[in-house]
Design brief:
Helices cover 39% and strands 16% of the residues. It has 674 residues and is an alpha/beta fold. The protein is elongated and about 105 Å long. The relative contact order is 0.07.
Length: 674
């Protein structure tokens, strides 16, 4: 099937969404239509943000494992050792006999060279058997390779001779990792990698019993299955974060049902996590069946393990499991953002707070709030980069807020206030976690406005200046509707928020909210019943108090972002707690798109003048367009500096000065006509 241009695909998919939300009365049917639209978008090659695809088998092995002319082609040092024992020719004729001979030699009086040679030959012979389809014998030899690689690395009798600078040391680490990976690949395919369970690997000659255990905050009931990171190739996220050591990086696919943990409700569907499998040989006496324990570690929680008095760095991959999660077509193509923009009712089931790791009462929450026509997926690049910095992931936990972006942002702010209150009450009912009082909000575009409204005290100002000079108590109508109205226009600053970072935020409105875009919003957006019906009824029943209703008749987010909307003046002059710090990041590119005609210089959607924030404690300009400013390296670096400075001020880490990067170093973005 030919691949259509992304713009054509997006137009087709948007048409499907409009049809789904217009003609499908049942919400479940609408959601199925959206999922179908996402599948169509994916099949047509449109708009994918992140892609993960299986790696072809021939790409799974490094040069160490490629056998060119025969079944076993060991390294030069192993060949030299075999030659000394007159086994070089025998290896080509009968490699199994050579393995048996070396096995006896190593059991009697092991040396580093001999243990390495045995582990390497077992691994290479297992590769050949696996390729030939003899998986049972291959698994047995992989197990033997792990046992002797483990002996090389941890046997106390060899510790004096062990040399971490010898290339053999890295080579044996590869034998260990790749042999374990080969066993786990088979175990995963059989869905037998279950924490708390035990499997038999191979026969009685070289095999072992392998037990699986979860270590850390995650529990065995959280996981449905596992995949190997090295079996997948990731594109779409520029920086792939890996650490190098021992172990096999895994993708842990979580169960969709709740497991009883208090934070279960905050995990997104199809959540995947980075894990690392580390194998310990716990029983290796001659004549008994050997036992191995494979422990599964969260590399964000534990980067090193202590085994037999040796501190071992874990091999890990943080990025591929994230990309695997985002590979869902519904998330990946922007369909979720489009669907919840057009139909606010569809957002009811997905709006709220999300977390990608267990709640940690000792870590400061960083809440990321997306903008209009967007979703939490938009934070993938920044989250991936920030999470990989040790001092950040050791002190912060990242939460993501999702909301219907078709409704006015002050309605979303009211919902966020409730959701922040709920998550604090549920996760920290006794207020025993002081880190939750140092919360940081990061908002992109309209998400910056939603975030700012969390730290304002409304007093009577919002009601008196935006809605009516008459007392709120004079309103007549349904008590529930009146309470919703009260919650929207009467609120206090959240004292648990310490800093707010706004990125590409229209602090004075956006010229993009013009007559055309506002007409599109009124024509195609389906808003929640509360905005479409209840507010309108209140206006009709209280015409003597509300008049035309002002903000109550502002029914879409596009209307709300118009520079003529009166809320911006009230917000910018609103009362803010003195202890809160504000940081502002502005985008600026060559004039293009809607701003070229208006003469306003900005990021293509928000002008610099509108993005300025009078209350900012820091403000920088980044050479990036609106939709990508929060993914730009300069923006991510600025957020990193803000988070680091916050830790320094709280005496959680020592100060580390980063030299300033001159703005002139940024390459200008060339404007192109669409």
């Amino acid at each position: 099937m030919p691949t259509l241009r992304p713009r054509a695909v997006m137009l087709l998919v948007c048409a499907l969404i409009v049809a789904a939300t217009t003609f499908c009365g049942c919400k479940m049917t609408q959601e199925r239509c959206i999922e179908r639209a996402a599948a169509i978008s994916s099949s047509l090659g449109g708009g994918s943000i992140v892609k993960v695809k299986p790696v072809r088998k021939q790409n799974l092995f490094s040069p160490l494992h490629r056998y060119i002319s025969g079944p076993v082609q060991p390294s030069e040092r192993t060949v030299r050792l075999l030659r000394n024992y007159n086994l070089e020719t025998r290896l080509k004729v009968d490699p199994d006999q050579v393995i048996e001979w070396l096995q006896e030699l190593v059991l009697d009086s092991p040396s580093m060279e001999e243990v390495h040679a045995l582990a390497e030959i077992c691994k290479l012979r297992a590769d050949w058997l696996a390729a030939a389809g003899n998986k049972s014998e291959a698994a047995e030899l992989y197990a033997n390779a792990i046992v002797h690689a483990h002996q090389f690395l941890f046997d106390s009798t060899l510790s004096v001779k062990r040399n971490a600078f010898d290339p053999q040391f890295r080579s044996i680490c590869d034998v260990y990792n790749q042999s374990l990976a080969s066993i786990l690949r088979v175990v995963c395919k059989e869905n037998a990698l279950l924490p708390g369970h035990e499997v038999s690997i191979g026969g009685s000659r070289f095999g072992c019993d392998m037990e699986f255990q979860i270590v850390g905050r995650w529990k065995e009931q959280h996981f449905e299955r596992f995949e190997l990171v090295n079996d997948y190739q990731m594109t779409g996220i520029e920086n792939q974060y890996r650490t190098y050591g021992l172990g096999v990086p895994l993708i842990a696919i979580c169960k969709t049902e709740e497991t009883g943990s208090k934070e279960d409700k905050y995990y997104p569907p199809s959540l995947t996590l980075p894990m690392t499998a580390f194998c310990e040989i716990v029983e290796s006496e001659t004549g008994s069946r050997r036992k191995a324990v494979v422990k599964l570690y969260d590399p964000l929680e534990q980067t090193h393990v202590k085994h037999q008095d040796v501190t071992v760095p874990l091999e890990s991959d943080l990025t591929t499991p994230l990309a695997y999660h985002l590979n869902d077509p519904l998330l990946n193509s922007g369909l979720l953002a489009t669907a919840t923009l057009i139909n606010g009712e569809l957002a009811d089931g997905i709006h709220g707070m999300y977390m990608l790791s267990p709640f940690d009462p000792t870590k400061i929450p960083v809440v990321m709030v997306h903008g209009i026509w967007s979703s939490p997926v938009t934070w993938a690049h920044m989250f991936n980069d920030l999470r990989a910095i040790p001092e950040i992931h050791e002190n912060y936990q990242f939460w993501f807020y999702a909301y219907p972006t078709g409704q006015p942002f002050w309605m979303s702010a009211q919902q966020m206030r409730e959701d922040l209150s709920t998550i604090r009450r549920e996760l920290d009912p006794g207020s025993d976690a002081p880190a939750l009082d140092d919360m940081i909000l990061i908002g992109h575009s309209m998400g910056g406005l939603v975030s700012q409204l969390q730290v304002l005290d409304s007093g009577d100002t919002f009601w008196n200046e935006l809605v009516s000079p008459r007392p709120f108590g004079d309103l007549r109508g349904d008590p529930e509707s009146i309470q919703k109205l009260r919650d929207t226009f009467f609120f206090k600053a959240n004292r648990s928020i310490d800093r707010v970072v706004t990125i590409g935020t229209p602090n004075h409105g956006s010229s993009s909210a013009n007559a055309t875009t506002r007409w599109i919003g009124h024509t195609f957006f389906t808003l929640p019943d509360f905005l479409g019906n209840e507010f309108q009824k209140l206006v009709r029943d209280n015409a003597d108090i509300l008049g035309d209703g002002k903000l109550l008749t502002t029914t879409t987010s596009v209307d709300a972002l118009s520079p003529e909307c009166p809320i911006f003046d009230v917000m910018n002059s609103g009362k803010r707690p003195q202890n809160i710090k504000f940081h502002n990041i502005i985008g600026q590119v060559q004039r293009r798109g809607l701003l070229r005609k208006s003469g306003e210089h900005g990021d293509g959607v928000v002008g610099v003048k509108s993005a300025r924030y009078e209350h900012a404690d820091s403000e920088i300009i980044v050479n990036a367009e609106h939709a990508k400013i929060h993914q730009h390296p300069s923006c991510i670096l600025e957020v990193r500096k803000i988070l680091t400075e916050n830790l320094v001020e709280k005496n959680l880490i020592r100060s580390r000065r980063l030299p300033e990067i001159p703005v002139s170093w940024e390459a200008p973005i060339t404007a192109t006509d669409d």
